[in-house]
Design a protein that fits this description.
Blueprint lengths: L1 H13 L4 H12 L12 H30 L2 H17 L4 E4 L3 H12 L4 E5 L2 H10 L2 E4 L5 H6 L7 E4 L4 H14 L4 E5 L4 H9 L3 E3 L1 H14 L1 H10 L9 E5 L12 H8 L4 E6 L5 E3 L12 E5 L2 H15 L1
Helix pairs in contact: 1-2, 1-3, 8-9, 10-11
C-alpha cells in the first residue's frame, strides 16, 4: 500500500501523470509485468522507476523472510495451538481452575487429572508454561490476580477454583475477584500464615488449606499411628478406577426417604457400604452415625466400601437421577 501511494505520487510529480496513469505505471512497475509505459519517461522518471523497482523487491523479500521465519521457527504452530486451546477452554463448563503451578498446584492438577476432571491452570512463569505445554495441560497464561486472565481461564463457567499462589495477599485478591465473577464457585485457597485465614473467609473462600501445617500433622501422625495413616492413605480417592469413599447428598434422595433415617437409606439402596460419617444441614459432623439418625434435604452421608461396592452404589444413584 505504501509503495503504491509513493509510486503514484512520484509519477504525478515527476511526469505530471494523472492519478489513473500514475497508479497504472506504479502497478506494472512493481509487478514487473513488462507492459508499455503510458508515455515516454524523462530521465527523472527513469531513475524514479529504478528506485521503485528496488524498493518493491526489498519490501517483497522482507515480507517473504518474515513469513518464512514465522512459519519455520514454530511461531505459527504455537499460535495455532494457542488458538485451539482458547477454543477448548471456551467450551468447558464446571471445570476446575487452578492458580499457580508450583508444588501444591502440580499435585492438585495430577490428582484431579487422575479423576478425569477438566482442569485449566493459570500461570505466568515461562518455565512453568513450558512444563504445562509439555504435559498437554490446558492453561491460561498471565497473572492470576488479573481479572482478564481468570476470564480467559473460563472462571465464569467453572465449577471450582483452587488458588495456590505463594503470597496470601495474592490469594485473597484472586478469591475476591473469582467470587465476584462467579458467585456459585466452590473455592479452595492456600494460606501461609494463620492471620490470613479470616481474610480469605471474608473474601469468599469455602475452604482454606495450610500445606505446611497439613504436612507436619501428617508426619506426626505416621509416628503416632502409622498403620492407621497407611489405611487412610489406602481408602483415600487417588485414582479414577480405585474409589473407597463416596457421598450421598440429601437432595439426591427420593422424597419418601427425606425425614427418614440413615438405616432407611441403607436399606433402600441395599448398600453393602458402611456409613462412616454424616454432615447435618447445620454443618455439624457426626462420625459413625447410628442407623436411627434422621436425614434431611441439607445433609450428606459418607460411605466406605470396596471399589466394587462403591461403584454399585454410585450406579444406583446415577440411575435414580436419570
Amino acid at each position: 500500500m505504501a509503495i503504491a501511494v509513493t509510486g503514484s505520487v512520484g509519477y504525478m510529480m515527476i511526469e505530471d501523470y494523472s492519478f489513473d496513469e500514475a497508479l497504472y505505471m506504479t502497478i506494472i512497475t512493481v509487478s514487473t509485468v513488462g507492459f508499455k509505459e503510458v508515455r515516454e519517461l524523462s530521465e527523472g522518471g527513469r531513475y524514479f522507476t529504478i528506485f521503485l523497482i528496488f524498493t518493491s523487491f526489498g519490501t517483497f523479500a522482507y515480507a517473504i523472510s518474515s513469513a518464512s521465519k514465522y512459519i519455520f521457527t514454530g511461531a505459527y504452530a504455537r499460535y495455532y495451538k494457542r488458538y485451539q486451546m482458547e477454543n477448548t477452554i471456551g467450551k468447558l463448563e464446571n471445570h476446575v481452575v487452578i492458580c499457580g503451578f508450583g508444588s501444591n498446584g502440580t499435585e492438585a492438577v495430577e490428582r484431579l487429572k487422575a479423576l478425569d476432571k477438566e482442569v485449566v491452570v493459570v500461570e505466568q512463569s515461562e518455565e512453568k508454561i513450558e512444563q504445562l505445554r509439555a504435559h498437554g495441560y490446558l492453561f491460561a497464561e498471565g497473572d492470576a490476580t488479573d481479572e482478564e486472565t481468570l476470564i480467559n481461564a473460563g472462571i465464569k463457567k467453572a465449577g471450582s477454583l483452587i488458588t495456590t499462589l505463594p503470597k496470601d495477599t495474592d490469594n485473597v485478591f484472586v478469591v475476591l475477584t473469582a467470587r465476584e465473577l462467579n458467585p456459585n464457585l466452590k473455592i479452595v485457597s492456600r494460606a501461609v500464615v494463620d492471620s490470613s485465614k479470616a481474610k480469605l473467609r471474608i473474601a469468599g473462600a469455602d475452604a482454606i488449606i495450610m500445606p505446611d501445617k497439613v504436612g507436619g500433622a501428617r508426619m506426626a501422625g505416621f509416628i503416632i499411628n502409622q498403620n492407621i495413616n497407611r489405611f487412610l492413605d489406602k481408602v483415600a480417592i487417588t485414582d479414577q478406577n480405585e474409589k473407597h469413599i463416596t457421598e450421598i447428598v440429601g437432595s439426591q434422595l427420593p422424597e419418601d426417604l427425606l425425614q427418614g433415617t440413615v438405616g432407611d437409606v441403607v436399606d433402600h439402596y441395599n448398600a453393602e457400604c458402611l456409613v462412616i460419617g454424616m454432615r447435618k444441614g447445620t454443618g455439624e459432623y457426626l462420625v459413625n452415625p447410628p442407623s436411627s439418625t434422621r436425614v434431611s434435604d441439607g445433609c450428606e452421608l459418607f460411605f466406605l466400601g470396596s471399589n466394587e461396592q462403591i461403584d454399585a452404589l454410585n450406579s444406583q444413584l446415577t440411575q435414580a437421577e436419570s
